Amino acid sequence: MPYIIDLPTFVDKRGKLVVVEKLLPFEIKRFFYIYNIKSKRGGHRHVKTIQALISLGGSCEIYVNDGKKEEFYLLDTPNKCLILNPKDWHTMDKFSENCILLVFSSEYYDKNDYIDDEY
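Given the sequence above, the corresponding structure tokens read:
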């Protein structure tokens, strides 16, 4: 099942600084972000890719089905990181107007790593 990591946040009079260092259960090989989102995204799982999702601004809801359990996660702060395992079939939905969703990936893009069938 996926899980949430609370990212260290340093606050002072200048603002907030969030750090992602030595926290992810994988080496980052790729990252991407989506924004100005008009419809549901995702709708797949992976053969071997692990992902870490962070909403940098705004909010969105992540639906996950690992074949045994279904759960919804709300990403609504930039210091909350959702870890998705390869077996986690997921969709991203209910994006706020200003949502920017950052995704770190353990693998380079490979179309053969995608499984489109839900459990």
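The longest strand covers residues 51-57. Try to locate this feature in the token string yourself.
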